[in-house]
Amino acid sequence: MNDTPIDLGFVGRRGLIGTWRTETSLVDPGPATTVPALLRALDGWQPQTILLTHIHFDHAAATGELIERWPQTEVVVHAAGARHMIDPSRLWASAKRVFGDELEQRFGSMRPVPAANIRALEGGERVAGLLAAATPGHAKHHLAFLDESSGRAYVGDVCGVALAGGPVLPPTPPPDIDLELWRRSLGLIAAWEPRELALTHFGAIADAAAHLDAVAASLEQHERLARANDDEGYASTVRGLLAPRCDAEAIADYDLLVPLLQNARGLARARAAADGD
């Protein structure tokens, strides 16, 4: 078990996106643009399994290209996301409308994964020596994985984004944000009593309990901020809250991984759904 993730050097920056390697698996191989960096770090090692916490491009876009290289590798994904890995065209077209040309510049192309390579989970299964759990909130198809022998939990985005020296921010883009489900997912992970949280963005968190509390508090804070501001006002307020702990470059890194205008729109959509609008 590696103590640190493989830093993929996303957009030429360190400490933004990391892929975790277990004894037999990779967790969240990242965007397609960073496949060369991942392969260099693996130095010929091939996983038996790719575990996807969810199918967002910064976590999963590399998968199809990697399976072309590793046709015997199994891809584990939540059942609600499996069809988009087999045929990513609708997912890609939807994101293209939001991000335009930046989508491919940042994430590369998302190639399909053969259905024969897919193992779809609902949560509660054991796979590659890990316990899988459905952890919706950030995405309805989100999974987390617990290594019971080490106490490490691989948590994707349900435990937020915490860059070096900065606070934890919840990524809340449309369309799947459900804050009540998110809180339940945090409770499920807390019940595991993990010794460590393995974040994609970024690194290992030793004080798991304190971090989970911080994520829950951040969700409440951002829900309040989104209610009190329009989208631009929300984004400006969050940048102001980051400023005491982050320089301009670090704030830009947060805004890259947690696009604040998208965060505001996801929170507004979640609020409307909760209110029955």
Short précis:
This protein is an alpha/beta fold. It has helices at 35-42, 57-60, 63-69, 79-86, 89-99, 102-107, 179-192, 208-228, 231-242, 248-257, 260-275; strands spanning 6-7, 18-21, 25-27, 49-51, 74-78, 118-121, 126-127, 130-134, 143-147, 152-156, 161-162, 168-169, 196-199, 203-205.
Chain-wise SSE layout:
Elements: E1 6-7, E2 18-21, E3 25-27, H1 35-42, E4 49-51, H2 57-60, H3 63-69, E5 74-78, H4 79-86, H5 89-99, H6 102-107, E6 118-121, E7 126-127, E8 130-134, E9 143-147, E10 152-156, E11 161-162, E12 168-169, H7 179-192, E13 196-199, E14 203-205, H8 208-228, H9 231-242, H10 248-257, H11 260-275
Parallel strand pairs: 3-4, 4-5, 5-6, 10-13
Antiparallel strand pairs: 1-2, 2-3, 7-8, 8-9, 9-10, 11-12, 13-14
Helix pairs in contact: 7-8, 8-9, 8-11, 9-11
Can you walk through the features of this model?
With 277 residues, the protein is of the alpha/beta class. It has a single domain, classed as Metallo-beta-lactamase, Chain A. The chain has a six-stranded mixed sheet with strand order 1-2-3-4-5-6, with helices on one face. Helix 7 packs antiparallel against helix 8 and helix 8 crosses helix 11. The radius of gyration is 17 Å and the shape is globular.
What's the helix-strand series?
A: EEEHEHHEHHHEEEEEEEHEEHHHH
How many structurally independent domains?
Answer: 1
Query: Could you say what the CATH architecture is?
Result: 4-Layer Sandwich
Strand count, sense and barrel status of the largest sheet are:
6 strands, mixed
What is the topology, as strand order, of the major beta sheet?
1-2-3-4-5-6
Q: Please report the first level of CATH classification, the CATH class.
A: Alpha Beta
Distance between the termini: 47 Å
Beta-strand portion reads 15-25%
Count of DSSP helices? 11
Shape field: globular
What name does CATH use for the topology? Answer: Metallo-beta-lactamase, Chain A
Average residue-wise pLDDT = 96
Radius of gyration: 17 Å
The computed structural class is: alpha/beta
CATH homologous group name: Ribonuclease Z/Hydroxyacylglutathione hydrolase-like
Poorly predicted tracts of residues: none
Indicate the percent of residues in helices. Answer: 40-55%
Number of strands: 14
